[in-house]
C-alpha cells in the first residue's frame, strides 16, 4: 500500500466517523480503529493523530480512553499542557468562589490565581538588549523573584498589566480551544430539570447586557445547555454573575458549569473532589428555585386565558395581581385592547409552610382576594423589606368570618445582600427581587389594584366562566332592584343573619337598611364598574365591588360586598363603603 493510498483511506475513515457511521456505544470496529492506533504508534507525538484516535474511541463509546488521548494530545507540547493545567486550576478556583457566593459559607478562600504557574523561561540564552531598548516583559517576569514581580506590578506602567493580559489570551486561545471543544465531558445539566423536559429550539439569542432581566438570562443559560452550547452557556453565566453577584442560583449554576467543563462535576451543587459541595439542606432550596423558574418558562399561561377567580373586571380596573403560591409565581394582568393580558411574570417567595394562613405566626401565606392598602418605599421600611412594600388588606371580612388571625401581610423586596429568596422562606409575605419590587411600586395603584392569592392558579378561557359570571351578576342586580323598593324586608332578605362588617352586626345593619330605604325609595340607580371576583381559597364566596350612582348624580358610593352560601342560598355576610 502506497503512502497516498494510506492517506486516502485515513481521510475516508475520518469522514466516515464524522458522518456518524461508527457511533454505536460499545460497538467494536477493530479494522477502522487499528488504522488510527497504528498512526499513533508511528507518530506518538503528533497531536492530530492522538485527537483522531480520541474521536474514534469516543464514537465507539470508550469515553475514558478518549479523554486520555485528548489529554495526551495536549501534552505533546509543554506550553499547551501548562495552559491546559492552568485553565483547569483556574476553573476550580473560580468554582470554589462561585460556590461560596451561592451558599454563603463565609469561608475564607485562597485567591483565584492560587496554584497557577508562570510559563517557563526560555531554554536558550537571549542576547542582551541594547541599553536604550526596553526589556522584554516575558524575560523580566520569568527571571525576577516574586518580590520583584510584586514591586513591578505596583508601578503604573504597561508591563504591570500586559503580562496578565497575555497570559489570559494564552489560556483562552490555547487551553480553552483545544480542551473545551475536544475534551468536553458528557452533558450534566446543572439545574436538574426533568428528564422529560425538551428545551425549545433557540431562534433568537437574547443579547447579554446589564439591562436584561436576570431570570431571562438564567433561562437563556439553560437553553444553551439544552442545546449543547457549553462554551456559550459558560460565557453567559459568567456575564450574569458579574452583573448580579448576589444571584445565588446563578452563582451555583456558574460554579457547576466551571466544574462540568473541567470534567469533575458530581451533580447539581455537589462539587468535586477538589471543590467541596453543599449539603442537601443547602442544595434543596436552590434546586426547587431552579425547578420553579424553569417550570414558569416552560408552562406560561395559555394565550387568551384568565385565572378562574376573575369573573368580571371592568376596564376601570387597569391592573390585577394574581399569585400562584405553589409555583412561586406572581403575574400582573392588564387591560389591553379589550382583553386582560399578562404583562409581567415574576418569581416570588411565599411562606415557609406554604399557603392557607389560619393563625398568627403560622408561617403561611393567606389565600383570598385582597386590596393594596398603601405604598411604602425603602426609606419607610428597614433593610429586611428591600426596595419597599405594598401592604395587603389581610385579614379581610371573609378571613374574619372564618376566624383567621394575623396581620402585616405584604408584597415586599428582599434584603440587600441577596438577589432573591428561596421559594418557601418568608414569614407569610410575598417576597420579590428588589428590581421586580421597584416595578410594582412604580406601576400598581393602591386601593385600585386587586390581589388574588391562590394555591394553584387555573387559567381558563373567559367564555368558560359565562354561566358563573351571569349568576353572580344576577346577585348584584337583585340587590339593586331590592334597594329601590319601599319594603326594606325584601332587601334585608339578601343579608345573612350572621352579618358583621366589623362595625355593625345584624341588628344595627337592619336599622341602617330601613333608614336608607326610607330616604332612597323609588330613586333609580345603576351599578357602575362592577367587579366580581371568586374567592381563591376553595370556599363558596364572592367579592362584588361597584359604584352605586343615583339617577341625576355625577358620582356615587363605592361599595364592597362579601357574598357566601347560607343553607344553599347566596347571602351578603359583610358590606362596607370604600369611598
List key phrases describing it.
17 helices, 18 strands, 579 residues, alpha+beta, disordered N terminus, single chain, 5-stranded antiparallel β-sheet
Question: What does this protein structure show overall?
Answer:
This protein has 579 residues and is α+β, with helices and mostly antiparallel strands. Helices cover 41% and strands 16% of the residues. The chain has 17 helices and 18 strands. The chain has helices spanning 3-18, 30-42, 47-59, 63-74, 78-103, 137-143, 146-154, 158-182, 214-226, 230-243, 248-262, 280-298, 397-401, 434-443, 466-483, 488-492, 506-520; strands spanning 306-307, 310-312, 319-324, 329-336, 339-347, 350-351, 368-371, 376-377, 388-391, 410-412, 424-426, 430-431, 450-454, 459-460, 525-534, 541-550, 557-566, 569-577. A hairpin with a 2-residue loop joins strand 17 and strand 18. Helix 9 (214-226) runs antiparallel to helix 10 (230-243) and helix 10 (230-243) runs antiparallel to helix 11 (248-262). The radius of gyration is 34 Å and the shape is elongated.
Summarize the structure.
By secondary structure, this protein is an alpha+beta fold. It has helices at residues 3-18, 30-42, 47-59, 63-74, 78-103, 137-143, 146-154, 158-182, 214-226, 230-243, 248-262, 280-298, 397-401, 434-443, 466-483, 488-492, 506-520, and strands spanning 306-307, 310-312, 319-324, 329-336, 339-347, 350-351, 368-371, 376-377, 388-391, 410-412, 424-426, 430-431, 450-454, 459-460, 525-534, 541-550, 557-566, 569-577. The strands form five sheets. Strands 2-15-16-17-18 form a five-stranded antiparallel sheet.
Amino acid at each position: 500500500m502506497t503512502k497516498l493510498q494510506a492517506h486516502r483511506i485515513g481521510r475516508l475513515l475520518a469522514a466516515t466517523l464524522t458522518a456518524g457511521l461508527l457511533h454505536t456505544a460499545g460497538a467494536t470496529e477493530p479494522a477502522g480503529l487499528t488504522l488510527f492506533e497504528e498512526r499513533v504508534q508511528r507518530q506518538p507525538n503528533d497531536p492530530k493523530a492522538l485527537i483522531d484516535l480520541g474521536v474514534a474511541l469516543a464514537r465507539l463509546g470508550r469515553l475514558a480512553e478518549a479523554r486520555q488521548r485528548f489529554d495526551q494530545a495536549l501534552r505533546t507540547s509543554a506550553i499547551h499542557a501548562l495552559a491546559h493545567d492552568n485553565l483547569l486550576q483556574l476553573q476550580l478556583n473560580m468554582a470554589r468562589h462561585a460556590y461560596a457566593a451561592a451558599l454563603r459559607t463565609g469561608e475564607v478562600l485562597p485567591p483565584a490565581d492560587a496554584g497557577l504557574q508562570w510559563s517557563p523561561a526560555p531554554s536558550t540564552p537571549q542576547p542582551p538588549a541594547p541599553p536604550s531598548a526596553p526589556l522584554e516583559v516575558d524575560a523580566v517576569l520569568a527571571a525576577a523573584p516574586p518580590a520583584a514581580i510584586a514591586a513591578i506590578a505596583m508601578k503604573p506602567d504597561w508591563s504591570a498589566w500586559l503580562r496578565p493580559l497575555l497570559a489570559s489570551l494564552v489560556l483562552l486561545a490555547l487551553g480553552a480551544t483545544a480542551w473545551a471543544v475536544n475534551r468536553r465531558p458528557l452533558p450534566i445539566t446543572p439545574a436538574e430539570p426533568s428528564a422529560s423536559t425538551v428545551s425549545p429550539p433557540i431562534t433568537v439569542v437574547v443579547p447579554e447586557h446589564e439591562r436584561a432581566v436576570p431570570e431571562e438570562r438564567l433561562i437563556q443559560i439553560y437553553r444553551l445547555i439544552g442545546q449543547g452550547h457549553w462554551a456559550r452557556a459558560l460565557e453567559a453565566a459568567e456575564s450574569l454573575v458579574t452583573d448580579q453577584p448576589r444571584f445565588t442560583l446563578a452563582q451555583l449554576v456558574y460554579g457547576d458549569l466551571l466544574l462540568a467543563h473541567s470534567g469533575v462535576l458530581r451533580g447539581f451543587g455537589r462539587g468535586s473532589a477538589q471543590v467541596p459541595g453543599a449539603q442537601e439542606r443547602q442544595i434543596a432550596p436552590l434546586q426547587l428555585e431552579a425547578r420553579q423558574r424553569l417550570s414558569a418558562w416552560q408552562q406560561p399561561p395559555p394565550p387568551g386565558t384568565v385565572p378562574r377567580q376573575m369573573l368580571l373586571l371592568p376596564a376601570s380596573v387597569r391592573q390585577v395581581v394574581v399569585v400562584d403560591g405553589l409555583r412561586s409565581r406572581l403575574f400582573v394582568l392588564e387591560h389591553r385592547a379589550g382583553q386582560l393580558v399578562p404583562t409581567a411574570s415574576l418569581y416570588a417567595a411565599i411562606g415557609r409552610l406554604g399557603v392557607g394562613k389560619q393563625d398568627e405566626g403560622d408561617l403561611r401565606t393567606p389565600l383570598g382576594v385582597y386590596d393594596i392598602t398603601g405604598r411604602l418605599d425603602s426609606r419607610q421600611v428597614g433593610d429586611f423589606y428591600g426596595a419597599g412594600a405594598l401592604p395587603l388588606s389581610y385579614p379581610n371580612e371573609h378571613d374574619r368570618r372564618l376566624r383567621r388571625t394575623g396581620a402585616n401581610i405584604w408584597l415586599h423586596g428582599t434584603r440587600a445582600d441577596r438577589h432573591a429568596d428561596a421559594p418557601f422562606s418568608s414569614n407569610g409575605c410575598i417576597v420579590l427581587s428588589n428590581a421586580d419590587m421597584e416595578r410594582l411600586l412604580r406601576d400598581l395603584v393602591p386601593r385600585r389594584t386587586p390581589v388574588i392569592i391562590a394555591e394553584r392558579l387555573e387559567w381558563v378561557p373567559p367564555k368558560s366562566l359565562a354561566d358563573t359570571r351571569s349568576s353572580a351578576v344576577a346577585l348584584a342586580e337583585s340587590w339593586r332592584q331590592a334597594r329601590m323598593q319601599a319594603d326594606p324586608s325584601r332587601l334585608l332578605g339578601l343579608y345573612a343573619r350572621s352579618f358583621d362588617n366589623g362595625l355593625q352586626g345584624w341588628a344595627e345593619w337592619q336599622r341602617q337598611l330601613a333608614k336608607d330605604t326610607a330616604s332612597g325609595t323609588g330613586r333609580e340607580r345603576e351599578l357602575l364598574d362592577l367587579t366580581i371576583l371568586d374567592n381563591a381559597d376553595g370556599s363558596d364566596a364572592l367579592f362584588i365591588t361597584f359604584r352605586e350612582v343615583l339617577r341625576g348624580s355625577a358620582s356615587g358610593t363605592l361599595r364592597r360586598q362579601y357574598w357566601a352560601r347560607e343553607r344553599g342560598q347566596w347571602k351578603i355576610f359583610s358590606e362596607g363603603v370604600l369611598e
